[in-house]
């Protein structure tokens, strides 16, 4: 009996695993076919256009052809021939925006957190500049399709873990595979500064706060890594070091160093480390206490991808509203600011990015400046502002039409979305369920 029990137990385990695999394979199938290249010229007429530059055009004419914007004007001040555009979309009463950009994201790197085989966001090891997140990116992730209906059309796919996580790449969110999705490959390398303190306590208990006694040592190790890399790249060697060679772009200016740090000391030490090693392009990621280091940031032309603002302060003595006001504080100081949303449930909550910008408006930031936090400002920080981030002639036609204010969850209802001029599907598993049950109750 015991032997039979063991056999049955093993069979049950195999059946459960098989069902899990089949379930995951079903979940991982894409719902939409990526849109084909733009074949007809398109004109959006009479909508309110929010250009992403701070300018707003009422009764706008936004035209695009072969994936590029070729007209941005006031519809009342121009004359167009009947055959100037193949398709005209009436935008009366609606709003047009540049596609929103989510930076420092793991979209497409993880499908289901509880399924290890679908999680490819992190490599083992401490110094991994040679890790390229883009090769693990799954363009047909079902999570990706859930963010597009809120206007998220571009993402920076970023690795996690280690002291040096690896390189990120920037993609558009409607493609067959990662090579087709690419906007900018290996745009930067990400490093995680050690924390200056450690928290004790059990789970949710507050516990104690203690200094990180290893902080200086950990910082020195990071500094030594970059000094060694710089020396290797500047000399001649009989053997190749692929790990070290991956840092070349930081020293020749083709890549950005993204320093993940929240504390003032971390930020200052990280910037000094980069400058001492001759790294010129620097962006702070997180930056909760960046306002304390504002003079240093301004002096070195360093921007901030600000951490999730729908959160609590990091210290007990800080204003409870400080995270909500942080974007305005930094913007008022003249610092270039974008918004990022990493953290708990970051992939699924990426769709809430425009509403984070909307919160900044509620706490004093001008609405068009808040829009720039997730469009042109972020594009500048990622080095893609010549191609994306605003509605300007010559740029990619990556944009969308909303029935109302795109920064307000009550009114951001997309009717059309375009990536590089291609009209993409806004359907998701959720919209299909909604249609299904609406049909059910309409039958009654």
UniProtKB/TrEMBL annotation:
Keyword Transcription included in the entry's annotation: no
InterPro entries: Amidohydro-rel (IPR006680), Metal-dep_hydrolase_composite (IPR011059), Metal_Hydrolase (IPR032466), Metallo-dep_Hydrolase (IPR051781)
One protein family per Pfam: Amidohydro_1
MF term (GO), any: imidazolonepropionase activity
Domain Amidohydrolase-related: 361-418
Gene3D superfamilies: Metal-dependent hydrolases
EC number: 3.5.2.7
Signal peptide: 1-30
Keywords attached to this entry: Hydrolase, Signal
Taxonomy, superkingdom: Bacteria
Cited PANTHER family: ALPHA-D-RIBOSE 1-METHYLPHOSPHONATE 5-TRIPHOSPHATE DIPHOSPHATASE
Protein name: Imidazolonepropionase
